[in-house]
Design a protein that fits this description.
This protein is mainly α and 139 residues long. The chain has one domain (30-138). Helices cover 67% and strands 0% of the residues. The chain is built from 5 helices and no strands. Helix 2 runs antiparallel to helix 5 (100-138) and helix 4 (61-82) packs across helix 5 (100-138). The N and C termini lie far apart (51 Å).
Length: 139
Amino acid sequence: MEPVEERSEDAAYKIRTDPRVSPEINAPRWSLATRMAFRLVFAYEIIYSFPFPLTMVPAIGEAWGRHDALLAKMTVWTGAHILHLSRPLVYSSLAGGDSLFGWVRNLTQILIAVAAAGLWTVPSAAIAFTWTRPIGVWL
């Protein structure tokens, strides 16, 4: 009886599911710019949306109030110290997001996201350097 040749799709499936084959071998590596962009967008989305799902729970209302108050203080500080606005920011629930306060709040959230993405990148770069330094010694 002759052995039946496997189709290339079946062979590829077998290779991908073989536990001895690491999936990272063929995985494309992201450049530093791509990783930073992903981390920035991910951090901004979390900061912008937080704590939306939690606000649906009644007991979270007090924590949301503290989070909102802290972000409002950071927004006022950003307007006064970074943007050097001539008049103080005034928060109004009727103004919505299309007010000076809303725009400065978005800027504050972007600045927090930039800081979070930077803090996310520095340890991963340090870990990569620590693990690759012995390889450089051997080369």
